[in-house]
Write a sequence for this structure.
């Protein structure tokens, strides 16, 4: 799997794209560990990284949407809430059970499909609005 998100999912807001790349890189690590049948503790550690990068991105986007009065922020934040729960569920499932092919499939679907779909449906729509309000991304940092 390539360690970069597809160009079609680049939002043009550099900080957000960098955050998405981090999510993708840690997600890629997670999928590799799951497929190699690695130990649970290593998998859980990597899930924690994925979770941290996801939360950093969501918090950043939510702060920016509020700061600039993005008109679609309510539905965007509702979508984040579902994904936050999904990632938490995966962590709990790994904590409680065995790593089965079904779990690996679920991880791929929930993290990759859901996150990528989220970028396509929500982030690509939001980024031009933020960029328009703050073209140089002043005042924001990772
Ligand atoms: Fe988002
Ligand atoms: Fe995002």
């Amino acid at each position: 799997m390539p360690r970069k998100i597809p160009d079609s999912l680049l939002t043009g807001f550099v900080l957000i794209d960098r955050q998405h790349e981090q999510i993708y890189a840690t997600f890629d690590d997670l999928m590799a560990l799951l497929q190699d049948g690695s130990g649970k503790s290593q998998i859980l550690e990597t899930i924690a990284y994925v979770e941290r990068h996801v939360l950093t991105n969501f918090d950043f986007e939510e702060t920016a949407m509020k700061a600039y009065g993005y008109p679609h922020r309510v539905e965007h934040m509702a979508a984040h809430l579902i994904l936050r729960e999904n990632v938490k569920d995966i962590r709990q499932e790994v904590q409680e059970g065995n790593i089965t092919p079904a779990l690996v499939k679920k991880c791929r679907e929930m993290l990759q499909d859901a996150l990528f779909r989220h970028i396509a449906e929500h982030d690509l729509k939001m980024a031009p609005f933020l960029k328009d309000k703050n073209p140089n991304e002043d005042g924001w940092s990772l």
Observations:
- The chain has four helices and no strands.
- The chain has a mean pLDDT of 91.
- The chain has one domain: 13-133.
